[in-house]
Write a structure and sequence with these properties.
The structure holds two protein chains of two kinds. By secondary structure, chain A is α/β, with parallel strands linked by helices. Chain A contains eleven helices and ten strands. The radius of gyration of chain A is 18 Å and the shape is globular. In chain A, helix 7 links the parallel strand 7 and strand 8. By secondary structure, chain B is α/β, with parallel strands linked by helices. Chain B contains 13 helices and 16 strands. Chain B has a six-stranded mixed sheet, sandwiched between helices. Classes of the chains: A alpha/beta, B alpha/beta. At the A-B interface, strand 1, strand 2, strand 3, strand 4 and helix 3 of A face strand 3, helix 3, helix 5 and strand 9 of B.
Chain lengths: 293, 386
C-alpha cells in the first residue's frame, strides 16, 4: 500500500502552467488539479470547452481570466456538441493538430450533457473529454445526480441515495471509442500518462477522473488527495484504461484497505448504516472478483 | 449565365447556402426541413459543394456545433423549424450573445400541441427576443436571394449577429416555382470572405469566451446587441440595393404593394401577402384604394419605414399567422407600436394557424371591415368555427 504522505515529484511533469492566478476555487478543490494537469499534458496548442460547472465558473469573471489558453464556457448540455463544431472548424482551417478538449463535471457528462457526449463519441469526433466526477451537481450546491454513489446524502436527498452510481466509463466504452480511461487526482503519474497517451490517439477519447469535493462530500479541504487515494486503495475506484477495446488495469492496490476507511472520512455518508457499508464492501469485492476472473 | 430551375423553397435555400460558400453545416432532421439537407448532401456527393455537413444527434446540438464552428472561424449555415427551433432556443440566445453570424433557415411550422406539421409563424415568433435578425420570405426566389443576403448582413462588421430567414412549410418548402439561380462566382464575390477578429478560438490568440459577468457588465453587452440590430436596418437596405445592382432583384425591410396612395392597408408576412396582393389588384379595379404592406424584416422591426409607407392610410389591418394567448399576434403589437400617435387605427386578425387556408375571400372581408370601419378595436379570428 502507498504511503498516505507520499510527495509527488513535480519535475516529472511539463513545466508550463496554463492556470492561475485569480482562480476562484474553494480550498481543497480537485477540479483545478484536474484542469491544471490536463492542460500541462496537452500543451499550448489546445482549445478547452467547459460546460456549466464549478470549473467553468471559477476560471474567469468579467474581464479577469485565470486561464492562458483559448477557453469557451459552453452551455450546460452542449459541451461535446460545441466542441464538435470547434474541431470541425480547426480541420477546415488547416489546424487539425489543435487539441480540442472538453472538461465537464459529472452532470455535464453523464446527465444533462449525456446526449451531446454520446453523440460526439459515436461519431468518433477527434475530441478529448475529461469528466471530473465530484459525484453531485456541485455548482448548484451538491444536489443528487446519476453519479452520486449509493448511500451518499445530498441537500436535496438527506436520507441518503438508495440507487447505484452510473458506471460512466463502461457506458463510454460501449461506444467503441479508441480510448477510455479512469483516473484519480491522487495518482497523478497515472493520470498524466493517460493524458499523454490520449493526446497521441485520434478519435474520441474519454477520461473519467474521481474528483473529491470538500463541500459536497463533507471533509476538511486538506484531505482531498488523501480521500481520493483511499478511494483507489480500497478498490472502490479502479484505475484502468480500455484502448481499442482491450482492458488494462493501470494500478493495483497491494492490499485493499476496507472501504469503510474511505466512507467514514466523509460526512455525506453519515446516514450510511453498517449494513449499507457492508453492501458497498460487497460491491467492491465483486468488482475485483470479476476483474480477477 | 444565370439559369432558371424549378425549385421548391428548401432547394432554393440549399442553393443559397452553396452559392454563398457555407463551410460547415451542422444539422438535425425535422419535417419539413429535411429536403433542404438532402439537397445539400446531394451537392456535396456530386462534388459541387465543398462543405462539411455534420449530422448531430439533436437540433440543440446542431446549433451548439454551429456556434463552435463559427467561433473556430468558419462560415456556418443550418436549418430547422418548430420543435427543433424551440429545442434550440437556449442556444439561440447564446449565439447572439457571442455575436457569431450563423445563418439559419427556419421553415415555419406550428408548434405542438396539438401536433401539426403545417405552416404557422409561432416557431419564429417564440424567438423574436433572442436578438437574431429575422427576415420572412414570400417566394422561393426570395428564399434563395435572402439566403445569400443573410451572410452579407450577418457578417457585416457593423452587425455581427446571427440571422434566421423564414419561409412557410408546405406553402413554400414543398411548392415548386421557377427560380433564377445566379452564378456561383458572382455570388461568392458578392458575399466575400468571413474573417472574424471580434471573437475567435485560436491557440495563437487566446481568448476566454463567455466569462460569468456581474451586474457591472451584462447591460453593456445587451446595449451593443441593440446597436448592432439598429445598424442592421441600414445594412439590410444597403445589401438590398447592392444585390439589386448585381442580380436585378430588390428586397428591402418592407415590401409595399400599391400602398403609396392606399387608404386601407393590410400588413402581413410571408405568403399571405401573395394572396392579398391579388385581392388588391381586383379591388383597385373596382376603384377601392387598398394596398398590402408585407413586413420582410421583423427583427430589426423597421418602424420608421412602416410609418412613412402608411402616411396616407386611414386604417390598417394586421394578419398574424401566430398568436400569444393573453396578448395578441406579434405583428399586431409591432404595428400598433410603430403607428402610435399617428391616429391610424390598427385592427388585428389571427389567421392561417396550423396551415388553415387564408383565401382571397378572407382577405376581401378584411378590407371590407376596414372600409366600413367595423369593430376596429377588436381582434378578429378569421374562419373560426363556432
Amino acid at each position: 500500500m502507498m504511503e498516505m504522505s507520499e510527495k509527488i515529484d513535480l519535475d516529472q511533469f511539463d513545466k508550463e502552467e496554463f492556470l492561475g492566478p485569480s482562480l476562484k476555487s474553494c480550498p481543497g478543490c480537485s477540479a483545478t488539479i484536474v484542469a491544471r494537469f490536463a492542460l500541462k499534458a496537452l500543451g499550448k496548442d489546445t482549445i478547452v470547452i467547459i460546460p456549466a460547472s464549478c470549473l467553468a465558473t471559477l476560471l474567469a469573471t468579467n474581464t479577469q481570466t485565470g486561464i492562458k489558453i483559448p477557453y469557451l464556457h459552453a452551455l450546460f448540455e452542449c459541451g461535446s456538441s460545441t466542441a464538435t463544431g470547434v474541431k470541425h472548424a480547426m480541420m477546415r482551417k488547416g489546424k487539425e493538430n489543435v487539441n480540442v478538449v472538453t472538461i465537464a463535471g459529472d452532470s455535464g457528462s453523464m446527465d444533462i450533457g449525456f446526449q451531446a457526449l454520446s453523440g460526439a463519441a459515436i461519431r468518433n469526433e477527434d475530441i478529448i473529454h475529461i469528466c471530473y466526477d465530484n459525484e453531485s451537481a456541485m455548482n448548484t450546491g451538491g444536489q443528487l445526480n446519476s453519479c452520486t454513489p449509493f448511500g451518499a446524502r445530498t441537500p436535496d436527498w438527506p436520507l441518503g441515495k438508495r440507487l447505484m452510481k452510473k458506471d460512466a466509463p463502461s457506458i463510454m466504452a460501449a461506444h467503441n471509442i479508441p480510448y477510455v480511461a479512469t483516473a484519480s487526482i491522487s495518482h497523478l503519474e497515472d493520470f498524466y500518462m493517460k493524458l499523454k497517451k490520449a493526446k497521441k490517439i485520434k478519435g474520441f477519447r474519454y477520461i473519467h477522473v474521481l474528483s473529491p469535493c470538500p463541500i459536497s462530500w463533507g471533509y476538511d479541504g486538506r484531505y482531498t488527495v488523501e480521500i481520493a487515494r483511499k478511494a483507489v486503495e480500497s478498490g472502490l475506484w479502479m484505475l484502468y484504461e480500455i484502448e481499442n477495446g482491450s482492458f488494462n488495469l493501470t494500478y493495483k492496490p497491494e492490499r485493499r484497505i476496507p472501504v469503510e476507511e474511505y466512507l467514514r472520512m466523509q460526512r455525506r455518508f453519515d446516514t450510511l448504516t453498517d449494513d449499507d457499508a457492508r453492501k458497498v464492501q460487497e460491491i467492491v469485492n465483486e468488482l475485483w472478483r470479476r476483474y480477477e476472473e | 449565365m444565370n439559369k432558371i430551375e424549378l425549385l421548391n423553397g428548401n432547394e432554393a435555400a440549399a442553393y443559397g447556402a452553396m452559392l454563398s460558400g457555407a463551410e460547415i453545416i451542422p444539422v438535425y432532421p425535422i419535417t419539413p426541413q429535411t429536403p433542404l439537407i438532402h439537397k445539400i448532401s446531394e451537392f456535396i456527393a456530386k462534388g459541387e459543394f465543398d462543405a462539411d455537413l455534420i449530422h448531430l444527434e439533436s437540433d440543440q446540438s446542431a446549433l451548439a456545433a454551429a456556434v463552435g464552428a463559427s467561433l473556430g472561424g468558419a462560415r456556418v449555415f443550418t436549418a430547422t423549424n418548430s420543435q427543433g427551433l424551440l429545442y434550440m432556443a437556449e442556444v439561440c440566445y447564446y449565439a447572439s450573445g457571442l455575436r457569431v453570424p450563423i445563418v439559419m433557415a427556419v421553415i415555419n411550422r406550428a408548434v405542438s400541441s396539438p401536433h401539426s406539421r403545417y405552416p404557422d409563424h409561432s416557431d419564429a415568433m417564440a424567438l423574436k427576443s433572442s436578438h437574431w435578425i429575422q427576415l420572412f420570405c414570400e417566394t422561393n426566389q426570395e428564399v434563395l436571394d435572402t439566403a445569400i443576403q443573410m451572410f452579407r448582413i450577418c457578417e457585416d462588421r457593423r452587425v455581427l449577429l446571427p440571422g434566421m430567414f423564414s419561409y412557410e412549410s408546405y406553402l413554400l418548402s414543398f411548392t415548386w416555382e421557377n427560380v433564377e439561380v445566379p452564378e456561383q462566382e458572382k455570388v461568392r464575390k458578392f458575399v466575400g470572405e468571413y474573417n472574424p477578429e471580434h471573437i475567435i478560438l485560436d491557440p495563437d490568440d487566446p481568448m476566454t469566451i463567455n466569462a460569468p459577468t456581474t451586474p457591472d457588465y451584462l447591460t453593456e453587452f445587451r446595449y451593443k446587441q441593440k446597436i448592432a440590430m439598429d445598424n442592421a436596418l441600414k445594412v439590410i437596405r444597403e445589401v438590398g440595393k447592392e444585390f439589386q445592382r448585381e442580380f436585378g432583384r430588390f428586397y428591402g425591410l418592407i415590401d409595399p404593394y400599391r400602398v403609396e396612395d392606399a387608404e386601407f392597408v393590410i400588413a402581413t408576412m410571408g405568403t399571405i401577402a401573395s394572396t392579398a396582393k391579388e385581392v388588391v389588384d381586383e379591388m383597385r379595379a373596382e376603384g377601392k384604394k387598398v394596398g398590402v404592406l408585407r413586413i420582410r424584416s421583423f427583427r430589426p422591426f423597421p418602424r420608421e419605414e412602416v410609418k412613412k409607407a402608411l402616411k396616407s392610410a386611414e386604417a390598417v389591418a394586421t394578419i398574424d399567422r401566430n398568436f400569444s394567448a393573453g396578448s395578441n399576434g406579434a405583428l399586431y403589437d409591432e404595428m400598433r407600436s410603430a403607428l402610435y400617435n399617428t391616429g391610424i387605427p390598427v385592427k388585428g386578425y389571427i389567421a392561417g394557424l396550423g396551415g388553415r387556408n387564408v383565401s382571397k375571400n378572407d382577405i376581401r372581408e378584411v378590407f371590407e371591415d376596414l372600409i366600413q370601419k367595423e369593430r376596429l378595436e377588436e381582434i378578429s379570428w378569421i374562419n373560426l368555427r363556432g
